[in-house]
Design brief:
Blueprint lengths: L1 H15 L2 H10 L5 E11 L6 E7 L2 E6 L6 E6 L5 E6 L6 E7 L2 E6 L4 E6 L5 E6 L7 E3 L3 E5 L4 E6 L5 E6 L1 E2 L2 E2 L3 E7 L2 E6 L4 E5 L6 E6 L16 E7 L4 E6 L4 E9 L4
Parallel strand pairs: 1-19
Antiparallel strand pairs: 1-22, 2-3, 3-4, 4-5, 6-7, 7-8, 8-9, 10-11, 11-12, 12-13, 14-15, 16-17, 17-18, 18-19, 20-21, 21-22
């Protein structure tokens, strides 16, 4: 009788257990959680900006743009889209991802193997650093940098020395997930744009496992995608007010969105 009562108690506890734990159980059975979005606010964005990296701090967006001869680093007023500070890269550089580390901005380039470190306040170039291969996206958690290169790997670098310490092999189950582009560190996870898609992967920075998918289909009307490369690319997070911003290359808007788990069909 005691054994029966114990089993009943266990079943009762499982029944009232939080949806988060139940969701983990479902994910371990092979179902990666999916998230849908609701638009909270829409902000103006320079539609000529070939957005490669995005970050937020204290009411301003910091944006890195790409293309040779057009690459720049910008400080943008969120509410108006006004560019209030700008640094243009030399024409031989194709700018890629950016991130903020304390009072500095770090920016990488596509095929040059060169990264730049700027003073956050005045965009003064402080130093350069080098790396092998391509640079795509960049994110930081304070003491580490996470860098994508278009493959299924994310490099983990020391935020001070830029030395690589390890690599994350990003995967969903046993399947590698590649085309990782712009990155952002959000509440303990790496958010990654998947190039030429409307999806963002939520990635464990410890294991590389994709722990969730964000579906942003329908966020921007197709009428605004006048070029094949006008794709979703740009994630920024306001940790103080828990606000998530997304945009794309050549998009006219930046969207503040709220996420919710996708309901089962």
């Amino acid at each position: 009788m005691k054994a029966i009562r114990s089993r009943l108690v266990v079943l009762f506890l499982l029944t009232i257990c939080s949806p988060f734990l139940l969701g983990q159980a479902n994910a371990s059975a092979g179902s990666t959680p999916k998230y849908i979005f609701a638009i909270v606010r829409v902000f103006p964005h320079d539609s000529s900006a070939y957005t490669q990296g995005l970050a937020y701090r204290d009411g301003f967006l910091y944006e890195g743009t790409g293309r040779n001869g057009q690459s720049s680093l910008r400080k943008v007023r969120l509410e108006t889209g006004e560019v209030i500070q700008r640094f243009d890269l030399a024409s031989e550089y194709f700018g890629e991802g950016i991130t903020l580390v304390k009072d500095k901005i770090v920016q990488i380039t596509w095929k040059s193997g060169v990264g730049f470190v700027y003073d956050l306040n005045n965009f003064r170039l402080l130093r350069k650093f080098s790396y092998s291969g391509e640079g795509w996206g960049l994110a930081a958690n304070g003491h580490q940098l996470f860098m994508s290169d278009g493959t299924s790997e994310i490099r983990v670098l020391d935020a001070e020395t830029f030395q690589e310490s390890r690599r994350l092999r990003v995967h969903e189950g046993s399947t590698p997930v590649d085309q990782l582009n712009e990155l952002e560190f959000v509440e303990g996870q790496i958010f990654a744009n998947i190039w030429h898609s409307n999806r963002i992967a939520r990635i464990s920075p410890l294991t590389g496992e994709v722990v969730g998918w964000i579906d942003l289909n329908g966020l921007l009307s197709p009428v605004y995608r006048l070029e094949p490369e006008a794709v979703l690319n740009g994630i920024a997070y306001d940790p103080l007010h828990k606000r998530l911003f997304v945009t794309g290359k050549l998009w006219p808007s930046i969207f503040e969105i709220r996420l919710a788990p996708e309901r089962g069909k």
